């Protein structure tokens, strides 16, 4: 038993199952027995791969973070116009959260409760992603298609829109519809009128006019 080799497939199955279980209940309510029973394996098998329930929980979050980071990096590595890149990025992130619902729930619920080491890893992923997307928007600013703007904060707004769309979606909502909504609102916002900064009063008139027309 002690000499048996560990399997990457078994580890992945354990992590994925743990993500499902942890997203359905609070951490203290989950037992490793629950995960083992769902997988049809012994509890000892789980402890061969993870020293504790905490380690398994962090592995579930880490697996999701790594997958999301890879998905974002793949989109931003493509040579495409900046607007198309943003649209693809939004679709990719929403699709990822849609398919990885368990990870999205875990991230939303426990982001503020991570320990120092895990929080540092999470911030590293976020900082890298924000920097990459900021450079995409910088291209729009350089071409004159976007008014001078704090691109880092603009990306934070974009990520917040994606998160809100996934969090507050209705049963009948579909990923394509959410992607189009977020992309349209964000791109219209950053493009605006590059040649003339919008004053507060003008912005209010625009919002009121849109409300009346709708």
Number of structural units classed as domains: 1
Give the termini separation.
Answer: 68 Å
Order of helices and strands: HHHHHHHHHH
The coarse overall form would be elongated
CATH class: Mainly Alpha
Number of strands: 0
Query: Main β-sheet, in a few words?
Result: none
Helix-strand makeup class: mainly alpha
The poorly predicted ranges are 194-214
Total number of helical segments? Answer: 10
Strand content: under 5%
Into which percent range does the helicity of residues fall?
over 70%
Query: Quick one: CATH superfamily?
Result: Tetracycline Repressor, domain 2
Q: Radius of gyration, rounded? A: 21 Å
Average pLDDT reading: 81
Looking at the structure, the CATH topology is Tetracycline Repressor, domain 2
CATH architecture: Orthogonal Bundle
Describe the structure.
With 214 residues, the protein is mainly alpha-helical. The chain has one domain: Tetracycline Repressor, domain 2 (Orthogonal Bundle). 74% of the residues lie in helices and 0% in strands. It is built from 10 helices and no strands. The protein has helices spanning 8-24, 32-39, 43-49, 53-76, 82-99, 101-110, 116-142, 151-167, 175-191, 200-213. Helix 1 crosses helix 6 (101-110) and helix 8 runs antiparallel to helix 9. The longest helix has 27 residues, at 116-142. The protein is elongated.
Give short descriptive properties of this protein:
214 residues; Tetracycline Repressor, domain 2; disordered C terminus; mainly alpha
List the helices and strands and how they pair.
Blueprint: H1 8-24, H2 32-39, H3 43-49, H4 53-76, H5 82-99, H6 101-110, H7 116-142, H8 151-167, H9 175-191, H10 200-213
């Amino acid at each position: 038993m002690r000499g048996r080799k560990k399997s990457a497939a078994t580890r992945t199955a354990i992590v994925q199952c743990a993500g499902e279980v942890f997203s359905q209940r609070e951490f203290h309510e989950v037992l490793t027995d629950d995960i083992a029973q769902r997988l049809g394996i012994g509890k000892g098998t789980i402890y061969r791969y993870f020293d504790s329930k905490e380690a398994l929980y962090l592995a579930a979050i880490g697996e999701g973070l790594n997958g999301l980071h890879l998905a974002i990096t793949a989109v931003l590595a493509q040579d495409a116009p900046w607007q198309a890149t943003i649209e693809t990025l939004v679709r990719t992130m929403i699709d990822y959260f849609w398919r990885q619902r368990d990870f999205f729930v875990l991230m939303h619920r426990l982001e503020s409760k991570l320990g120092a080491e895990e929080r540092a890893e999470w911030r590293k992923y976020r900082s890298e992603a924000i920097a990459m997307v900021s450079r995409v928007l910088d291209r729009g600013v350089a071409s004159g298609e976007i008014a001078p703007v704090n691109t880092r904060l603009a990306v934070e707004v974009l990520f917040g829109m994606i998160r809100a769309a996934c969090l507050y979606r209705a049963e009948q909502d579909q990923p394509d519809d959410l992607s189009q909504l977020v992309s349209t609102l964000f791109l219209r916002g950053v493009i605006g009128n590059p040649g003339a900064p919008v004053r507060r009063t003008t912005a209010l008139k625009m919002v009121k006019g849109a409300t009346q027309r709708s």
